[in-house]
């Protein structure tokens, strides 16, 4: 016959076993999440230096020449949060579509932007392009594993430059609800903002997705590349990363010779 004491001990053992099982399941889930996030951060477009080396796409918000680019690293640049200049006043038509034409040494890339969905992002690009901010800048980072993006918009060309101000995140729900892994799919042809990993930390760096890529829904999707432009980016990606790496400067160097934004 089982005594009440034995019954209590049995129940305690069973409870302990359930707790251990739950802990182990949580550890496995956390490990899977971290693996996904790590991969994503390595590819994330970071604005402001090394952040882009990981899945994180970052952008620095300091003055021209210090904007952080999507580096592939999830580590944000400290200067990203130190906005020295005010965000430009809204001057675009918030009901219109705009086209940003990037004339590069490898071919033209035209990006359609919807100001109704991302007014402040479109306004910032219109403002910067008018000031020739992007002219003569390099697309400094290419990732070919885990995430598939070409990152541009850093006047310094090393992932640490920015316009001296930051803009808020916009349109983050456009790509759907994040799955159990905490990511959504950024389809090939998507153009999105790099940031430091913190909300509202975008500057001038952005990334061009040339192959479907899973990332956390933390990067403002603000444009779509035209078919000819996507072919240009795919050609650059096909040449690989300098030195045979999977994340770094593209082997086929890309320079934005001129950038213009016009109302469609």
From TrEMBL:
Residues 1-34, 59-90 are annotated as: Disordered. The keyword Isomerase applies. Residues 1-27 have a biased composition (Basic and acidic residues). Residues 103-261 form the PPIase cyclophilin-type domain. The keyword Thylakoid does not apply. Coiled coil: none annotated. Gene3D superfamilies: Cyclophilin-like (2.40.100.10). It holds the Pfam family Pro_isomerase. One of its GO terms (molecular function) is isomerase activity. Keywords: Isomerase. CDD domains: cyclophilin. Residues 68-84 have a biased composition (Polar residues). PPIases accelerate the folding of proteins. It catalyzes the cis-trans isomerization of proline imidic peptide bonds in oligopeptides. This is Peptidylprolyl isomerase. It comes from Streptomyces zaomyceticus. The lineage of its organism: Bacteria, Bacillati, Actinomycetota, Actinomycetes, Kitasatosporales.
């Amino acid at each position: 016959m089982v005594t009440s004491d034995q019954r209590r001990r049995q129940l305690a053992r069973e409870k302990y076993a359930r707790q251990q099982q739950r802990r182990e399941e949580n550890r496995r889930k956390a490990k899977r999440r971290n693996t996904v996030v790590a991969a994503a951060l390595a590819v994330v477009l970071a604005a402001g230096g090394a952040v882009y080396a990981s899945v994180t796409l970052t952008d620095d918000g300091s003055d021209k020449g210090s904007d952080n680019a999507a580096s592939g690293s999830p580590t944000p640049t400290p200067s990203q949060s130190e906005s020295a200049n005010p965000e430009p006043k809204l001057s675009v038509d918030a009901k219109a579509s705009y086209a940003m034409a990037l004339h590069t040494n490898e071919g033209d890339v035209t990006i359609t932007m919807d100001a109704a969905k991302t007014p402040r992002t479109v306004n910032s690009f219109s403002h910067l392009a008018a000031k020739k901010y992007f002219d003569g800048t390099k697309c400094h980072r290419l990732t070919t594993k885990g995430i598939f993006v070409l990152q541009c918009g850093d006047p310094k060309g090393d992932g640490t430059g920015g316009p001296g101000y930051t803009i808020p995140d916009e349109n983050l729900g456009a790509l759907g609800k994040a799955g159990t892994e905490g990511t959504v799919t950024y389809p090939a042809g998507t153009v999105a903002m790099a940031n430091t990993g913190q909300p509202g930390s975008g500057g001038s760096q952005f990334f061009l997705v040339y192959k479907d890529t899973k990332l956390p829904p933390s990067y403002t999707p603000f444009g779509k590349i035209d078919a000819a432009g996507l072919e240009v980016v795919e050609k650059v990606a096909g040449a690989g990363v300098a030195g045979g790496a999977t994340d770094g400067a593209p082997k086929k160097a890309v320079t934005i010779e001129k950038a213009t934004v016009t109302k469609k």
